[in-house]
Amino acid sequence: MYAQMVKSEGMKSRDEMSAEEQAFQDRIDRGEKIEPKEWMPEGYRKTLIRQIGQHAHSEIVGQLPEGNWITRAPTLERKAILLAKVQDEAGHGLYLYSACETLGVTRDELMELLHAGKMKYSSIFNYPTLTWADMGAVGWLVDGAAIMNQVPLQRTSYGPYSRAMIRICKEESFHQRQGYAIMMKMASGTPAQKKMAQDALNRLWYPSLMMFGPSDKDSVHSAQSMSWKIKMNSNDELRQKFVDQTVPQAEYLGLTVPDPALKWNEDKGGYDFSEPDWSEFYDVLAGNGPCNKDRLGARVKAWEDGAWFRDGLVAHARKAAARRTPAAAE
Amino acid sequence: MPSLPDMTTADAADLARAQAAAHPGQTAPRPDADQEALFEALLRIGDSTLILAHRVSEWCGHAPALEEDIGLANVALDLIGQTQMWLGLAAEVEGEGRTDNDLAYLRDAWDFRNLLIVERPNGDFGQTLMRQFLFDAWHLELLTALMQSADPRVAEIAAKAVKEVAYHLERSSDLVIRLGDGSEESHRRMQDALDDLWPYTGEMFLSDDKDVTPAAEGVMPDPSSLRAKWEAVVREVLDEATLSIPENDFAHKGGKQGVHTEHLGYILAEMQFLQRAYPGASW
Amino acid sequence: MSKEWPLWEIFIRGQHGLNHRHVGSLHAPDAEMAVLNARDVYTRRNEGVSIWVVRSADITASSPSEKGPLFEPANSKVYRHPTFFDIPDEVGHM
């Protein structure tokens, strides 16, 4: 899940709602899509900006841990696949920023908020990618966790967000598969490759579980977002689903999930598993993950170093427009 | 050790390697001189696309705007695809059982035949775009000529690549014009980039003895024959960009003969790391 | 004056000769670059053969509150939809 800990307003009871708010809630309950410029509660708009913005930031910061390995990919084919995948992430960021812009905020404003540390991105991208097997594990686990969240969001109440998610999900299906394909190759490779694969799973397992956010009992903002259909499932529900889906995939690879307490629970029809270390999660959110400074630093540098380029093109566009119609010069 | 190659090994390159290891004294028959010249000529193209793809891909995630990030990645992807075709054909022509990946990942710098310009560090985005433009203009002329190659395999690859490269040139020349004729700062940066890179363009058109046979047989154009058209395109674009071509016509050279700048060693150290650290592993 | 690249709406005609369809938005300094960017962003998977770009600010949209008056009259003309007419099965496909 690329949106964690998105703050939203407290939930209003039906009696506390104005007539407009009641009508709005009724439309959502009927499954209607809310479109840009239609009336919406300010809390709905603000929560969506935070959530979609955070999701968009996660896509572009998420380019970095994988981009890290493009120049070191072990074959020409792997290099092309990885590059295409990281390029897709830039595209997904672009679609999501566009969706966010329909809510009355510009992409540059969102970028500035990210760079100033006033908006977050998913905690997972503050972990390093240390070996080639991490390219497999990121695709398999991180994209797997993201997809788990994004598929239901295709039905979210806000039209532009829903359409962005539909496009993203269509493109995303190749991401998880390419990751798992790398894992299969590694797990059936030399002893060193197998060790690399296990090491990647060991390091990325709990950070992947953290992607779904804290447990529902500690998640104060869920109820309102769920009634607005901008959050479709609870954190624990998705985490459980992810574990149930992923454990057999790890077994197929012959890898061991790093959780001694992991056990099939016949009664609930799912696995019992250990919680991640939530104090680590809050540390990472607070800026103390292994890569926070590097990731944000790289984004800020790209933005600042590119200012002359963006401005130069605007200067040219104005000159060219002025040459075409001198009256429009000012 | 079996006396015969293991026939269950699917990969021909593996077979060849096993064979060579089992019989150290034995070598495949030497290709004739024409084939050797063709191999060399193919490396000169495929190594340039490979190293440029590497440089361009370094921008992924770091470009000045999302749209540029995506656009540049497309260029790098095209160049990787072309590399697979050129080096794949080179390996086939060589006939020693190597693959495109063997050529990319298991040669040292002195065996690389790329132009020096493609190994130049990315610099600022203007340097990257100017390098791309100067290369694209040459690349398009080269591929256009190669479509008439007497070797149908070469002509076929060129016909596929030429469409991609025509778009690369459209994109890079458009950006060079806009930034040259943009703000004061963008103009200055583009002029600096041009001044820095110009001495690396002459190498594109220098011929050596390795160019003689393929040119005589109509397989490859004589490098010098591409100059006039390249210069016409470059002058037109740079004029529109309000940039001035440096007077200095000094040309750095050596890449095509395997004498590179220090940068290539670092590129290869990074690119080849996994293949070198885990020899024989399959990825 | 803002230095932010304006937003453009992108319309693409797919392979099959259908109408141009809205596929999304992007930023570009002017229309020509919006077309180039659209090619890179929205046709990565071979999706299109023709691109239109329109500056988002230049689009005039029906206001959402007019949704009733604008669209309800069409709703009442159910006879425009083929399923309005009951054709006996014996007649065959029509």
UniProtKB/TrEMBL annotation, chain C:
Cross-referenced InterPro entries: PaaB, PaaB_sf
Superkingdom as given in the UniProt entry: Bacteria
Keywords: Plasmid
NCBIfam families reported for this sequence: PA_CoA_Oxy2
Name of the molecule in the record: 1,2-phenylacetyl-CoA epoxidase subunit B
